[in-house]
Amino acid sequence: MPDPRDSVEFSCAGRPERSSASAPRPARPWLSVWFRCCHVYARVYRAPTGDRYVGRCPRCGGEVSARIGPGGTTRRFFEAC
Asked: How far, in Å, are 63, 66, 80 from residue 15 at the CA level?
């Protein structure tokens, strides 16, 4: 069991402190994508419309989009060029 005395809170100038009583944000669905163009992994999050996942390569900015539909896949890791 963790010791409550081991808890440390940090605050940065200009940033509000997080209260332990605040409600956690709901998890955002995401896919893991390997961007072959720059040899990096990144998360691609579900669009607010809920009909696709959209994202960009973190290095070159290349766009990627994956539709969500019936008969889809259970895979969570993909490759993009």
From this structure: 31, 35, 36
Phi-psi sector, 37: left (phi>0), alpha (psi -120 to 50), beta: alpha
pLDDT value for 74: 86
Closest residue by Cα to residue 53 from 79, 20, 29, 21: 29
Strand partners, 70: none
Q: How confident is the model at residue 20 (pLDDT cuts 50, 70, 90)?
A: low
Q: Is 39 left (phi over 0), alpha (psi -120 to 50) or beta?
A: left
The whole model's pTM is what? Answer: 0.64
Do residues 78 and 66 touch, judged by C-beta distance below 8 A?
A: yes
